Amino acid sequence: MMPRDLAAEAVSGVVWAGRALLLAGLVIWTCYFAATPLGAAAESFLHLPNLIFHEAGHVILGFLGRFMAVLGGSLLQLAVPLILAGAFLRKENPFGAAVCAWWAGENLLDLAPYIADARRLQMVLLGGRTGAEVEGHDWEYLLTEMGWLHLDQSLGLAVHRAGLAIMLASLVWAGVLLWRDRRVKAH
Question: Would you list the domain boundaries of the chain?
Fold first, then answer.
């Protein structure tokens, strides 16, 4: 008989295989993001769901003043996968939490070119126009307010690298969990 904690963690062969396929896909996707220039995440199909949470963040935090309303887009975009990761952990599903942590890292990759574009304002926004054609964009406003506009490129690159690091750590976490589940199944 298996100890209680190992029995609780055992997963069926179908679930294990599905997780293995998901992990393999995330590894490939992460390698693609790592090998492509800043902004590849904005071309991903995840950009649109990320954008929904981003825009909702402006509305949800809008009552806290302009700065928080503008920052709210990026905050909610990052908070949703982190909240879901916490929910998976509470439900004792660390693999699901690892996947959501990967998604949080991907969201940083999605935000990085937006941050890096704060001075140039060449990124095409939701309305189909660039920040230069309208009144600017979120990160131009935020970095200007903080006196960090001159750091846009450096901050964008740092956020991109942090996102990749989180994605890689999440993949390692998921891989360890998958390996452990394989060993548990064998017992």
Answer: 4-186
77 and 111 Cβ atoms separated by less than 8 Å: yes
72 in Cβ contact with 57 (< 8 Å)? yes
Q: Give the residue among 54, 114, 109 at the shortest CA–CA distance from 79.
A: 54
Rounded to a whole number of angstroms, the distance between the first and last alpha carbons of the chain is 9
Q: What sign has the CA pseudo-torsion 34, 37, 41, 44? A: negative
Amino acid at 8: A
Q: Distances in Å between the alpha carbon of 53 and those of 34, 58, 165, 171? A: 24, 9, 22, 23
Cα–Cα distance for residue pair 6/10, rounded to 1 Å: 6
Q: Cα–Cα distance between 105 and 82 in angstroms, integer? A: 10
What is the per-residue pLDDT across 111-150, written as a single tens digit (0 to 9) for each?
999 999 999 998 888 888 877 888 889 999 999 999 999 9
CA 101-137-79 angle, to 5 degrees, is 20
Nearest to 38 by CA among 138, 122, 131: 122
